[in-house]
Amino acid sequence: MNHEWAAGLFEGESYIRQPSVYRIAHEVKIKMTDYDILQRMHQQYGGNLFPETKAQDHYKQAWVWSLTTKTLVKRFLLSILPHLGLRRTFLALNALDALDHCYTK
Question: Which of 5, 31, 37, 70 has a 20 to 30 Å separation from 12 between CA atoms?
Answer without folding.
Answer: 70
